[in-house]
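Our consortium's second objective concerns turning raw sequence data into structural hypotheses that experimental partners can test. To show how far this objective has progressed, the report includes one record in full. It was chosen at random from the queue rather than selected for favorable results. The single chain below, 374 residues long, was entered without modification.
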Amino acid sequence: MKPLTLGKHQAWPPVVLAPMAGITNVAFRSLCREQGGGVYVCEMITTRALVERIPKTLKMIEFGPDEDFRSLQLYGVDPDVTAAAVRMVAEGNLADHIDLNFGCPVPKVTRRGGGSALPWRRKLFGRIVKQAVQAAEPYGVPVTIKMRKGIDEEHLTYVEAGLIAQEAGVAAVALHARTAEQRYSGTADWDAIATLKQALAVPVLGNGDIWEAADAMRMVAHTGVDGVVVGRGCLGRPWLFKDLQAAFAGIESQELPTLGEVAAIMSRHAHLLVDALGDERHGCADFRKHVAWYLKGFPVGGELRRGLAMVTSLAQLDDLLGKLEADQPFPRESLGQPRGRINAPGKVSLPYGWLDSRDDESVPEGAEMENSGG
C-alpha cells in the first residue's frame, strides 16, 4: 500500500486515530505515537466555541512538541461559522489538517441537525464542506470528512455525500460503516466501504470493527481502502498502533504484553495526563476511566480494581500497580472483542421536519454547540 497523502503530508502507515471525546487528548495521542506512525486526531472541537475563543476549547487544541502533523476535527452546522473556524485555524497555524465531523450519532448532536444527521440535507452539507475547503485552501491545509452510512437504512447518504465532498475538494473521505440508528451496535458494513471506494477518486478510509491489526488487513483486502481509522479498538491498548505498523509493513506480529508491561503503560499514560493537564488530582481523575479497558480480561481482584479506579495521586497509582501479578500473560480470549461503547440501536433524534426536504439549506435554530469534545 501507499502512504496516506493529505495535502503535502504523507502518513505511514495509513492509519488514523479517530477523535474520541474525553480520550484523544494530547496525552493519549503522545502515548499512541510512541507505539507507531499514523495520523492522530484530537477530540472534536465545535466551530462556535473555537470562533468565540472559549478558553476550554483553546486548551483542547494545544498540541505536543512531538506532534509533527497536527490533526484537528471540527464540528459545525452553520457554513459561515465553519468557514470562520477553518480560517482561524489555517491563518493562525493552529493545525496542519482539518477533519469535518459528519459521523457523530449522539442525540444531543443529531437533534440539532449535526453530525450524522447533516448529510441528509445535501445542499447544506455541500455548502459547509465547500466553504471549509475554500477557507483552508490558501494556506495549504487539507480538509477531510468523516461520516456514517446515513441516518438509518431507509435514509442512506454516504455515496452521494462522498461525491459532493469530492467535488468540493476534500483530500479524503472516511466512512464509519454504520448508520446513526445503529450507534455502536451490531457489525460494521464493510461492503458499504467498498462501494464508496469504487465511487470516489479521492482516498477513502474505512472505520468500524478494527479490533486487531489483522482486522485492518482484512478490511483493506475486502474493500480496497487507502487507509483505516481506528477508534474503540485502541482503548486500553495503545500498542495496537505498533501491531498496525508491523502489519502494513507485511510483518506478522502481535503485541501481547504481560500484566506488568501493561502496568508500565498505565503509569506512563497517567503521568502524561498529569503533565498535560498541569494538575495531579485532575490528571489521575481523568485516567480512571481507562483502568477497566487496560485490565480487560486479566484476572485482577475486585478490591484492587476498585482501588485503581479511584486513585487520586500518581504515588497511589504506582503503589497499586506494583501489587499486580506482573508475569500474568495477556488474556488471549479478549482479542478481537469489542471495547468501549456497545449500545443498542435507537431511533435517531432529528430537528422537526428534518426529513421533509433534502434541499433545504437553512441552518436549524440553536444548531451550533458551544462545548467541544462531544
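The partners drew two points from this record. The radius of gyration is 20 Å. The beta strands are 4-6, 9-11, 15-17, 39-46, 71-75, 97-102, 143-148, 172-176, 204-207, 227-230. Both points have been shared with the crystallography group to help prioritize constructs.
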